[in-house]
Amino acid sequence: MDSAKIVSFDVEGTLVTPDFSYAIWFEAIPRCYARRNGIDFERARELVQQEYEKVGDQRLEWYDIRYWFDKLDLGSPGPVMEGYQSRVCYYPDVRGVLSSLSGRYRLAVASGSAREFLRHLLRDIEPYFTSVFSSVSDYEQLKTSEFYRKMCQALGVNPEEVVHVGDNWQFDFIAPSEIGIHAFYLDRKRQGDHQNSLASLTQLKAHLSG
Fold first, then answer.
1. Same domain, 202 and 183
2. Which of 141, 145, 210 lies closest to 179 in space, CA to CA?
3. What is the 3-state secondary structure of 99-148?
4. Which pLDDT band, with edges at 50, 70 and 90, does 105 fall under?
5. Looking at the structure, do residues 199 and 147 belong to the same domain, yes or no?
6. pLDDT band at 193 (very low <50, low <70, confident <90, very high)
7. For 125-135, how does the pLDDT look when each residue is reduced to its tens digit (9 = 90+)?
8. DSSP string covering 79-97, please?
9. What angle do helix axes 94-102 and 202-209 make, rounded to 10 degrees?
10. Spatial separation of the C-alpha atoms in residues 185 and 22, rounded to whole Å
11. What is the 3-state secondary structure (H, E, C) of 15-44?
12. Sign of the C-alpha dihedral, residues 150, 151, 154, 159?
């Protein structure tokens, strides 16, 4: 991959564990809803879950924290999210890989998470990245091939000059591959054996130098 100039990363499940997001969606929001409506936490979580399911993960509202706080009349999400900052946890291989690659490539984030989440998820590692892209916040779409095309245009590179890695087969492998990006599927649980799958980010370094 001598042509690579950019290495882009998904965030949740790739750089950051799901702990923070899970805590926001399934602890913080139900807890706020319980207080707002004077009901117990378990009942609140059940009702909130029902609201999530009505929307579904194929609609942009699913990823929009402000939409949910407005819909459920919970006020501002900012202070609530700040209170859960300690739940952000990076995978053990992340800092070493970012540090070793940052001197050789421009590093970017290509995420389907809203910027309200990325503000917290990337707080301790954002200096490694020259650009951060949120498909839902910046382009109001999921991570389709069109999103990756727009990202390449914004970065001023051809798709063939980009390497992308992420843990979602459709959003992080199929979609970028469709426009010529060199994509790798991060399979931390080693559930498959695809030739372009990685068990850890450390393996990405071998592909880039090979």
1. yes
2. 145
3. HHHHCCCEEEEEECCCHHHHHHHCCCCHHHCCEEEEHHHHCCCCCCHHHH
4. very high
5. yes
6. low
7. 999 999 999 99
8. HHHHTTGGG--B-TTHHHH
9. 30
10. 22
11. CECCHHHHHHHHHHHHHHHHHHHCCCHHHH
12. negative
Whether residue 1 is contained in a domain is answered as no
- State the amino acid at position 110 in one-letter form: A
- Domain span at residue 47 reads 19-86
Residues 170 and 79 in one domain: no
What's this model's pTM, rounded to 2 decimal places? Answer: 0.92
| Same-domain check for residues 93 and 75 | no
Residues 104 and 189 in one domain: yes
Residue (of 184, 94, 185, 106) closest to 151 by Cα position: 106
Q: Cβ distance 116 to 66 under 8 Å?
A: yes
